[in-house]
Amino acid sequence: MSSKMASYRLGDLTDWLSGGTPSKKNPEYWGDDIPWISASSMGGSRYSHSDLKITKKGLDAGSRLALEGSILLLVRGSTLHNRIPVGIAERDVAFNQDVKAIRVKPELIAREVTDEMYVYYWLKANEQRLLEMVEHTGIGAGKLDTKRLQNLEIHLPPWPEQRQIVASATAIDEKEILNSRINQTLEQMAQAIFKSWFVDFEPVKAKIAALEAGGSEEDALLAAMQAISGKGEAELTTLQAEQPEQYAELRATAELFPSAMQDSELGEIPEGWIYGTLSDLADFSSNRISKDELSLETYISTENMLENRKGVCTASSLPSSASVPSFESGEILISNIRPYFKKIWLANKSGGRSPDVLGFTCRHKGTNEYLFNLLYQDDFFEYMMLTSKGAKMPRGDKKAIMQFGSVIPPIGLMKYFSERVKPFYVLATSQTRESESLESLRDTLLPKLLSGELSVSNIEDQLAELEEPAHV
Predict the structure, then answer these.
(1) What residues of the chain score a pLDDT lower than 50?
(2) What is the predicted pLDDT for the residue at 466?
(3) Which residues make Cβ contacts (< 8 Å) with residue 419, sequence separation at least 6?
(4) pLDDT of residue 463
C-alpha cells in the first residue's frame, strides 16, 4: 500500500441528513411502497426493505429520502450499547429521526478524493471507536453525538487503492448477504408450512372439500397431499412413479390430518385437536450457570438480541452477577423487555442469559421447532404487549404469558412438523457460523487495509476462497 495518506475531517467530506417519523395517526401517511428505515430495519449492511412503509404524503409531511448509495448510520437507540448499525441504501429509502443519511460531497467524488463505499467501510473498521463514543440517555438508549462524529479524522489513501479495498471488503459483505438471504428464505419456508398446517388448516379443509364434493376417503387424502405439496394430481402421479419414497412420505403426512372440524372457544378447529394454553406446551427454564463459564459468544441479553426476529449477535459485555439463568441448545429465548421489538431466537448452543430474557423449554420432547414457530407469530408478541406491565418500558407478565391461548394439534403432528423443518434450522446455523467467520475476517483485515499495514495483494488467497460456491 502507498504511504501517501491524506487526512481530512469527516464532516468536511460529507453531508449529513436527518430523517423523521410521519404521524402514525394519519393513515394517509402509511402503508404504501416507500421503505422507512429505523433501528429495527438495520440488521445487516444493505438496506432496501422495512416492515413499515410510508406514502409520498407521509414522506413530504414528516420524513426524508435517502438516495440510493447513501450511508445510513444509527445515532440513537438501545442497539448502540452493543453494536453500531451502519450500511448502504440499495434504493431510495425514507428514514426516521434516529438515523442519519450520509453522502460524500459530489465534488469530492468527481475529484476522486473518496466515495460513500470507502467511508462506509471506514466506519465499519472503526466500530469499537464509535462504541466508546456512545453516550447514555435517561431512557436506556444510546446516543452518538453528530458533531463529535463529524470531527473525527479520516486518513485516505489514493483513489485506486481505495477502490481495491472497497472491492475486497465488498466480496466479504456479499457472501454474508447471500447467507442472510438464504436464512431468511429458510425461515419463510418454515413459517409458510406452519401457517398452512396450524393456522389456516389447509390440509384439513382440502379433505373436507373433497368429501363434500362426493369424493371418497382416498380422494380426500389426495386433496390433502395436493394442499401440502402444492402439486396437482398429474404431478403427484409423476412423483409416485419417479420418487416413490417421497410420495410415500407425502401420503403419510396427509394421513396425520383429520377430515372434519369441531367447535371450540376459538371457533372451528380440526377434529381431535384441542384448544389449550402455552403452559400445555412449554415451561420456563430455571437452571443457572456461573459467569465464569460464559464468554461474549455464549451470553444473551436483551441488548444483543436483534429486533424483528433476526436472532442474536455477540454480546458487548458479561453480567456483573456471579451467576445467571442458563439455556441449552433447542430452547427458545425471547426478550421480556419491550415485547414489540419481537426479539426471539431458537438457541443453537448452550450458554447464559439475562433475567430479562425468557427461556422456554418444550414439555414434549422433539417439538422445539413447533414451539419456536408458534411463539414466532405476531399474535404471540401482541398478546405479550396486551398483558405486559409498565408504560415506558413494557415488561411481559410471566404468569399471563403461560396463559397464551392456542390450538394444539396431536403431539405426533407437532413432532413431525419439527422433523420436517429441522434441516432448515441446521442449515441456517451453518450459514450463520460462516457469516460470523467472515465478519471476524473482515474486522481483522479491514483496519489493516485502511491503515496501509496490509495491501490487497497480501490477502488474495483468502479473497479467492470467497468465490467458491456455497454448499446449500
Answers:
(1) 1, 469-472
(2) 60
(3) 366
(4) 63
The reply to whether CATH 3.90.220.20 applies to domain 279-408 is yes
- What whole-number percentage of the chain has pLDDT above 70? 97
Which residues pair with residue 269 across a beta bridge?
Answer: 262
Pairing assessment for the beta strands 142-143 and 357-362 based on DSSP bridges = unpaired
CB-side exposure of 423: number of CA atoms within 13 Å?
Answer: 3
Look at the block and give the residue holding cell 416413490. 244
- Per this entry, what is the length of the chain? 472
Domain-wise residue ranges, the chain: 157-273+413-455, 279-408
pLDDT at 316: 81
Give which of 273, 234, 269 is closest to 411, Cα–Cα: 273
Listed residue (406, 325, 335, 410) closest to 373, CA to CA = 406
The C-alpha R_g of the chain, in whole angstroms, comes to: 25
And the C-alpha cell for 250? 407425502
Q: Does domain 157-273+413-455 have CATH number 3.90.550.10?
A: no
Beta-bridged to residue 35, according to DSSP, are: 53
| All residues at 6 or more sequence positions from 56 whose CB lies less than 8 Å from its CB, including other chains | 32, 34
Asked if the domains 157-273+413-455 and 279-408 are classified in one and the same CATH topology, the answer is: no
pLDDT score at 324: 97
Give the model's pLDDT for residue 472. Answer: 46
Task: Annotate 56-89 with b (16+ C-beta within 10 A) or e (fewer).
Answer: eebbeebbbbbeebbbbbbbbbbbbbbbbbbbbb
pTM for the full model?
0.84
Cα of 283 vs its chain's centroid, Å: 25
133-141 long-range contacts, CB within 8 A, separation 24+:
134/80, 134/81, 137/76, 139/392, 139/393, 140/78, 140/393, 141/76, 141/77, 141/78, 141/80
Position 103, amino acid: R
Separation of alpha carbons 443 and 460, rounded Å: 16
pLDDT of residue 44: 85
- Environment class of residue 242 by beta-carbon count within 10 Å: exposed (0-12), middle (13-18) or buried (19+)? exposed
